User: Fold this.
Amino acid sequence: MSTQIQATARDIDGPLLELTDVTTHFKTPRGLVRAVDGVSFVLDRGKSLGIVGESGSGKTILSRSIMGLLPPRGTVRGGSIKFEGREIGNLGRKQMRGVWGKEMAMIFQDPMTSLNPVMKIGKQIAEPLQIHLGMTRQNAWATAERLLQDVRIPEARRRLDQYPHEMSGGMRQRVMIAIALACGPTALFADEPTTALDVTVQAQILDLLGEQRRDRNMSLILVTHDLGVVAGHTDEIAVMYGGKLVEKASTRGLFANMKMPYTEALLLSIPKLEDRSHTRLSAIAGRPPDLVNPPTGCRFAPRCPYAADKCRNEEPPLIATAEDPGHLYACWYPVGSAAYHEAKVRIANNKAGLATAASAAGGN
Amino acid sequence: MTTTISPATAAAPEPALPEAGTPTPSKRRRFKRPPIGYAFAVVFLVTLTLMAFLADYLPFIPYPDAKILGPDGRPGRYEWGPSWTAWFGTDGVSGDVFSKTIYGARTSLQVGVFATVFGIVVGGALGVIAGYFRGWVDRVVMIITDCLLALPALLLAIILVNRLDDYRNDTEWLGWLSRKWQIVLTLGILATAPLARIVRAQTLSLREREFVLAARSIGAKPGRVMFREILPNLIPVILTVAFTGLSILIAAEGALAFLGLGVEVGTPTWGKLIDENRNKIDEAWWATMFPCLMLFLTVLSFNLIGDRLSRRFDIRQAGV
Amino acid sequence: MRYFLQKLSQFAIVFFIVTFVVMILMRLGLNAPGDPARTLLGGTADQGLIDATTQKYRLDSNYFTQYFFWLKGMVTGDMGFSVPNSLPVSELIRGRVMTTLLLGSYAIVLGLIIAVPFAVRQAYKRDSAFDKVGSGLSFAFVSAPAIVLAPILTLILIKENTITLWWPLNDYQVTIGGWFPRIGEKVYPWQDLGAHFKNFFVPTLVLTLPIAAIFSRLLRGDMVMTLQADFVTLASAKGVSPRRVLWVHALRNSLFSLLTSVGLQIGGIVGGAIVAETFFDLDGMGTMLVTAILSKDLFTVQSAAAILVACVVVVNLTVDLLYAVLDPRIRHIRALA
Assistant:
């Protein structure tokens, strides 16, 4: 089953993942849902990428599309996905099965429901080892024990015989990581790995992921809605909105010099410790776009504070900044440009105008 | 370039743009399977009921004890299969199978409905009381239902009907109890246990809901709470189980009649017809098959309705 | 362990109550002294015999005493005497229990063998033609209990039907049916396998099809729900083959409704067996019980009913224990209780 992939030569030196105009559409009674609508990027081996966006932005579907974990019926896929130089975008589930677990692995959001409640932990870890690497049961369990130690679970041997419900949430997530790492994959997809966990455990898990990535020279793709999660743990960040990639930059570059108003809004919406008490949360007004009938023009326009007519009529292309060719964004009036400042002033004026009008009306 | 930003767009999506919303299909637009089965069931049952209860007045249904005469004027025993004279053919005593089947429907439906009502009233009451009061009341009710469920249903039914026969003959005050009502009582008792269980389970969960707590906190007496708060919420479940249970009870009535424990001699009923004619299945298959078919269709129809209701009310039970 | 004892005592209480009630029911209306014995022996028996029988079986004492003595007898293997048949009850039962036991076991085992792969495939290929047709068939068979299925199957399989077709050739005659005998002979597998098969096939089918349908519907429902769970996706994402995901991961989590149902269906099977045995003239416990009840054969009814109730109780207890075997979480909860 994996022979199909091994036949074409593996490109060890080139980029690990190359996405070109990848689309994933679902046929539903309401129409064609354009969950992922033309995403392209390149990921190098050993690097970590964060994919950030709201729910409905397509980030989870994107990661599943890359892996190929999509429902068999009603899915329309387009574009090219190259993994180590080999095209995998057009492969079915059957052919991808050889890749799953072995070269690409995924960990899910909720560790309680992601582990089989009636199967021992040891068996769940040993399973991919036995299937992909053909290990004997003894070897597999010994390896499983070592993996549990790698993910910093104490008393690994005892844990092998336990069931998921006997462990805490953080431990279960570690077990999931152990399962994912078992066969030494080249790429690990982490789909909201910390959302279901306590804040303190979150940090531990992210550190663990980072550590494993460095030790194994593995690429990590972290999908999350939380900018704070990606801030300290990724090399690059890709921001998604409405099924499209709207900004991509190195982490440092992004935070230092963000271009998309959406990214700016995301950052602003994070409550900060330094804010005075009772500071209003600046949430992004409105709701994510309808993926069956996405708005013409820029998809963020309906909610963008700086939107102009051009934004609503023409979709901005993904272009690189002048300073850094690796920093891509799609906006007509990016943060920091002249037009942006104009708009900001205008809005302030409007707000002030409103305020005076309101106070005038209130006064009378 | 002149761009106007009105305060509206700064705060909310512009009305002219397509509706902003997450792409989850709304409940109303969800695919509906054409309800053929359900429609058929309803039509069939309504027709059957009407025919059964108005049979005396319908000209095309002869009386069950009428003898169908052949072309030469003699009564035709098992003569014909389905034909214009006798739609379902004739049986051993030259009776019209069709009319006997329709009259049989009357019996089966009556018995089934009354028994179900009995089961709902008694079983429901037990269930609500057990679920509401819990504690030892619950334990007692659970033991009762356990006992009822431990003995195989048909066996219990046979014992009850038969013994009630004798008991009735001996005791004065039960003289009015005709066979029909014995069967109703028996089947009703059979229906009580599963209904009590289901109602109890529902009551247990409903009991913890806010509106019940609210009623209790203003001092409503238990009876009032049970009647006005819990009961109305039990109706979907009861309705669903009622239809499915009806189908089972009608089948049970058929089985009892088949074994000879059916309604009084003289009133035809499906089970009895099947039993009387099963040895003649070679020569006169129609005498057995049509009652059998009617029984099947009736059971099927009630099941279809019950299934549809359960899907509508979103109920799952593990095979009662 | 404590849990097991608790459950056992619960079931024991039920057993005693039920058998006691059966005893009372059978004696309903026979209050005049000597009545039970008279009924037992038949109306024409002479007074001396009646008195002797009353003495022997203590038919004139109160219910509790009678029950106690009957129970004592059961334990020692003496199930009383069946007067209409002039046989000790134990011998009567021994001659017939095998038939019913075989029928019932076949029904459940075959029902599972048919239902499980069918339902698994249905859940896997959800909403496919296979699934929809399968669901329709299951629904039909659920609505076709023994009383309905027996005549239909007799028509198709036992009666010889010669049908004249227009195709492939004009007046082409096809004979369907006549493959199985009308009257069931009580042949056991170890006596003559072929004859046994022939005699038992149709009655077994009558019982099996509805049971298989019920099982299949329940299992399909649970499987469909399980297959949507995250851990199933994760198992696939680990590279596990769909077959293994279905049968090793998903199935084990979906058996609960099915298991519950097995316990509940025993009563239904006995009822179906009664009908099937009567219809196909197989001498099993079913027909014996019906005759016994109608002829007021007190002890037969009591003892046979007790055996049946014991079976039901044992099966339910096993089902309850199997829950723990299947799901470690339940094991946990019970160990703590």
